[in-house]
Design a protein that fits this description.
Blueprint (H helix, E strand, L loop, with lengths): L1 H9 L7 H9 L28 H18 L15 H13 L3 H14 L6 H19 L24 E4 L2 E4 L1 H11 L54 H14 L16 H40 L1
Antiparallel strand pairs: 1-2
Cofactor: FAD
Enzyme class: oxidoreductase
GO biological process, one term: protein folding
Amino acid sequence: METLSDWLLSLPLQQIPYQAVLDLVDNKMKISGVFLGAELRWVGCQGSRPGLRGYPCSLWTLFHVLTVQHEATPTALDNTGLEDKAAPVLQVMRRYIRTFFGCKECGQHFEQAAAASMDEVKSGEEEVLWLWNQHNRVNTRLAGSLSDDPLFPKAAWPSPALCPACHEEKNGVHVWNRDNVLRFLRHHYGASNLSPRYSLSPPQLPAAPGPAQTRPPQEERPAAGGGERRAEEQPEPRPELPAPRQQEEKKKKEEVLGRGEGGVWILGLGFNSVDMSLCVVLYVSSCLFLMLLFFFFKVRSRRWKLRHSRLYV
């Protein structure tokens, strides 16, 4: 998506061929790292079998992280047009699910919940808790359904084992301690609990000034998995590519965004619309020439056979 966005922004809209956009989305050049392979393995949302967890789980995780980060650093949205709006992350999530989410029924349920109570959210804390509450409602509704993973059953989260202080009992009825829930969510989805282990380019922290550090590096914390109910195995990290290979991959990606002076370049192949037209003309001409040669030799061989038969007669 980043490659597609960069390429679209680099060209005037009126000069982008429709087929070129399709070719880039489908990645017909098969550039490594630009497209998703047939086998997709999730880090924190891997289901017990294909079709379970995966993308919906990762989407919940993403927006949980965004709500917590927005509460921690609200100035991050300055000059975006969203800084003066209440619950900007929830509004963006609402529009995304309404437009792009593949499950139409799920989108309708979320739209109903948003229309009923999203306008009541006025602060960052309420934004974090509103999304957490809606996520638990969805888990309750889908518990035991076909989309429920038997190894990771949908239930109210966080569980008592994960956050004992989040659960209370009043008059024999279970209630949530929302202050402790908020504190737990801030830690679980906070920046300090996110691991860059599986990111393509982990951010480099600046070195502390002074003499060489003698403290050993701390172990990485596991990645925060959205909607996780249990700890699960993490796949092996992707091996780092050697420097020449990285440069080659970078060069290939840059070629995707290439553009020449004579017109719009088609996916970095060096062909513009005029070149493509010439290729088509040459291709058709070659086909016609080969057909003429075929018929010429066909007729000639037939005449030779007739002449040869007359000599024998």
